[in-house]
Amino acid sequence: MGKRLYGLALAAAIGMGLVLLMGALVTKTGSGDGCGTDWPLCNGKFVPAYTIESMIEYSHRFVTAIVGLFVLATAVGAYMKLRHSREALMFAYGTLFFTVLQAILGALAVIFPQSDAVMALHFGFSLLAFSSALLLAVGLRTGAYVPKGMEAPGGPRGSRPEADTVMSAGMRKWIWGAAVYSYIVVYVGAFVRHTESSGGCLGWPLCNGQVVPPLTGATGIAFIHRIAAVILLVVIVIIAYKASRPEGGSRLLRNAAQWALVLTVLQVFSGASVVWTLSSDWYLLTALVHVVLISGLFGVLCYMSVLAWRSVRPTGGKNRSA
């Protein structure tokens, strides 16, 4: 479909992942006020003062702007090359929309103080932009958007592996439910960060030495996030088990479910490591690893959701992409 377009989509996906990571770094280091209330300038200057907070905040803005150009170029390229595929355009335009939306929300947060609940949405929109970019890049890599009848004989890009995905209606509901629920878990986690509630539950797996602590203040917020993460783990285990059965679906779905299970287990333990390192120099690293893992998990669940969606689409149609 074009190496340049794939390169742009891949750069946009990697860039949005970096934006997610840097946004978490801004929050964890308390650098959100590093540039005062100025935007796009930093404390009234184009080149900010060399303080840690201002450099972290301003570098986040700079990277977001550069990645935004990649996202825009990808959207334009998709319009020129992939107009036959509504799915590809949806991902390309979705990436652009959520990138702009999270940038606007970030700018408003600098100029006008926002509530923690609203700021948690900033991470959520960035995650949606990352996932859309990732899905577009994966689709281009696997040849999912090659017009029907133009597939190259042989080779990984001509085989249309996604088109062979078959799954039951029950499996589709589990996958779609898990994707939506995981976004809720991510939002609660972002809310924990922005309210600085990580210390509300000391110790793991118990919370302050209790099975069920008082659900008030930071303790309640952190404990709810833990319970939500455990429920997500149970849901992913069920999906992975169903996918592993002979009637569960294709090899593609089975592999994706296995990746989702691995990432879910890792993010649970990374969440525990965040608690264990709260008072150490390792805290920032463990917190960023936690963000990377949950972002990867959400991306895999979104990919599985797309596979579920493709499995119920009609096999014909002018604008169908495999």
UniProtKB/TrEMBL annotation:
Residue intervals passing through the bilayer: 5-26, 58-79, 91-112, 118-140, 174-192, 223-244, 256-276, 282-309
Cellular compartments annotated: Membrane
Membrane topology classification: Multi-pass membrane protein
InterPro entries on file: COX15/CtaA_fam, COX15/CtaA_HemeA_synthase
Pathway(s) the chain acts in: Porphyrin-containing compound metabolism
Keyword Glycoprotein recorded: no
Pfam families named among the record's database cross-references: COX15-CtaA
Keywords carried by this UniProt record: Cell membrane, Disulfide bond, Heme biosynthesis, Iron, Membrane, Metal-binding, Oxidoreductase, Transmembrane, Transmembrane helix
PANTHER family the UniProt entry points to: HEME A SYNTHASE
Protein name: Heme A synthase
Lineage of the organism: Bacteria, Bacillati, Bacillota, Bacilli, Bacillales
